[in-house]
Amino acid sequence: MAKTWSIKNLYYYLVCLVTLFMLVGGTISSVNSAMQLILPDKSNIPIFYTYYPEYRTEFEQPVFDPPALEELEKRRGEQEEMEAYYLGYSTRQLFNSLAVIVISAPFYIYHWRRIRPAAEKRGKSDEN
Fold first, then answer.
1. Which terminus of the chain has a lower count of CB atoms within 10 Å, N or C?
2. Which pTM value belongs to this model?
3. How many domains does the chain have?
4. How confident is the model at residue 39 (pLDDT cuts 50, 70, 90)?
């Protein structure tokens, strides 16, 4: 069975290839973003429990002088802002990835279905 390549067939196959890459990339990115939402990265030092002096035991020798309470509140506020920012960023990334999947899937399906009848027509004409 000899295959005849036309510009139309080449176009269909190229669109299917590109949209397939988009589907795979969107799927990988959406899984990554979902995992970032489920298991977010935590900062190395939990500021609240490390610096507040009332959580120390009585006999423990302080290794450093703790910062002032205002400075601790400022740091905790900054940490909460960063965590909220990264949560929003991961959510946006997840929706962007899902949008790539939702947009590229119909293009792939449509063009792949257009290839199949053309291949079947070629098969029937080769048999005759």
1. C
2. 0.65
3. 1
4. confident
